[in-house]
């Protein structure tokens, strides 16, 4: 059994993810829900059976083991369970990803739409990778299967339920087309990527300890526990189970400071670090498949007047990165505080707040979702609406400012009052 041994790191736990279409740009909760997708990424779920007796290791040594891991080949099965404490997205998932677009140029296999579904519930995945240019992720849903396949400069997404495919490639100059990566570039796609993101900066705001061992997917692992030293964060702790042999994170669990079940519980149930079969990364659309080319979809969205990213005005200013990644921000964004308590303040163009129901700018389903999440608040800053989940909270003021972070609603109100 490994002993407790701690180091300190400057773990920021804020993050954002923005969607892609016109109508949804008004919906602040989508940015909140998007963080869930950014948080889970493609990190896989729980399969532990007993605690192995392993040599002692310090937290610093275990962090270094993660950083030094060079395992780029694997295949296996994974599960992701997410409980943000928000109403079911249901049919809104497509609206969040597609923004309620007309459907012209859109595809039921568009990765931006399908990845939103990982923001809630439990999902089973089959995953495989052979270096940075060959990856496959399949989301299993009963008899249906949704797969994302990257093989060199070719990327395919296929939904067997709708028999639709989405295809992107690189042109001859090496310039990437609008290619549907499995998840946005800012989203970690493996447990290792997420762990590195949380641990990438050193400082006094985070406690990191080794807290015993575990058996994950038939492999021995050490448990690295990461906790904020600050109060006011919605994050209670993050536990990463690290393969004792090759340093690959096998499981990721995020517990909220409010207590209760995990917000994210994700890890491998089966994993093999051998070279996957080459056939895992090949794809030919079945006969009768409706194929959408990424460039054609982009051109159609442009013709429709879609600006692309932006769930709400000013969302483009949010920095890339999921949990633990700093929000660098744009000209209309600044970061208040540091570490786990950092809050992004975004000024929306024109100083416009959330559209009202009377304005007719918000679809009925979206308004219902907003009403379920939002609480009216007021203070020195004026008035606004707080949108809450178990992980990330956002305050949008009536004069068009957004405060968002993995902090309590009270912390958001305080930040808004201090900025007034």
What report would you give on this structure?
The chain is α+β, with helices and mostly antiparallel strands and 420 residues long. The protein has a single domain (6-302), classed as Lipoprotein localisation LolA/LolB/LppX (outer membrane lipoprotein receptor (LolB), chain A, Clam), CATH 2.50.20. Helix content is 18%, strand content 32%. It is built from 8 helices and 19 strands. The chain has a 13-stranded mixed β-sheet with strand order 1-8-9-10-11-12-2-3-4-5-6-7-13. A hairpin with a 3-residue loop joins strand 3 and strand 4 (134-141). The longest helix is centred in the first third of the chain and has 13 residues, at 28-40. The protein is globular, with a radius of gyration of 21 Å. The chain starts with 5 loop residues before the first strand and ends with a helix. The model is unreliable at 8-48, 89-104, 172-189 and 307-329 (pLDDT under 50).
């Amino acid at each position: 059994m490994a002993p407790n041994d701690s180091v300190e790191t400057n773990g920021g736990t804020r993050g954002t993810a923005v969607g892609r279409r016109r109508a949804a740009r008004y919906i602040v909760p989508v940015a909140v829900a998007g963080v869930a997708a950014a948080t889970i990424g493609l990190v896989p779920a729980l399969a532990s059976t007993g605690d192995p007796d392993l040599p002692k290791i310090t937290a610093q040594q275990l962090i270094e083991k993660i950083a030094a891991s060079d395992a780029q080949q694997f295949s296996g099965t994974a599960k992701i369970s997410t409980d943000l404490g928000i109403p079911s997205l249901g049919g809104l998932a497509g609206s969040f990803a597609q923004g309620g677009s007309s459907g012209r140029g859109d595809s039921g296999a568009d990765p931006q739409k399908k990845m939103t579904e990982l923001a809630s519930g439990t999902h089973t995945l089959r995953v495989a990778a052979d270096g940075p240019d060959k990856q496959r992720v399949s989301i299993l849903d009963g008899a249906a299967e949704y797969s994302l396949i990257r093989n060199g400069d070719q990327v395919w997404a296929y939904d067997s339920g709708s028999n639709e495919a989405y295809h992107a490639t690189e042109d001859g100059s090496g310039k990437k087309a609008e290619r549907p990566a499995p998840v946005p570039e800012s989203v970690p796609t493996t447990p290792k990527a997420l762990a590195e993101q949380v641990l990438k900066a050193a400082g006094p705001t985070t406690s990191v300890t080794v807290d015993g061992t575990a058996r994950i997917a038939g492999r021995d692992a050490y448990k690295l526990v990461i906790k904020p030293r600050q109060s006011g964060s919605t994050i209670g702790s993050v536990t990463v189970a690290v393969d004792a042999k090759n340093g690959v994170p096998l499981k990721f669990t995020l517990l909220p400071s409010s207590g209760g079940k995990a917000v994210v519980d994700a890890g491998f149930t089966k994993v093999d670090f051998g070279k996957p079969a080459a056939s895992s990364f090949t794809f030919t659309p079945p006969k009768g498949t409706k194929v959408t080319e990424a460039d054609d979809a982009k051109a159609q969205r442009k013709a429709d007047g879609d600006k692309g990213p932006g769930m709400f005005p000013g969302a483009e200013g949010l920095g890339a990165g999921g949990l633990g990644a700093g929000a660098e921000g744009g000209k209309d964004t600044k970061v208040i505080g540091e570490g786990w308590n950092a809050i992004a303040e975004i000024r929306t163009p024109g100083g416009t707040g959330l559209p009202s129901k009377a304005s007719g700018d918000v679809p009925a389903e979206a308004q219902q979702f907003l009403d379920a999440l939002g609480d009216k608040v007021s203070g020195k800053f004026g008035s606004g609406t707080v949108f809450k989940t178990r992980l990330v909270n956002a305050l949008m003021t009536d004069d068009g400012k957004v405060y968002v972070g993995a902090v309590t609603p009270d912390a958001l109100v305080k930040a808004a009052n201090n900025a007034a």
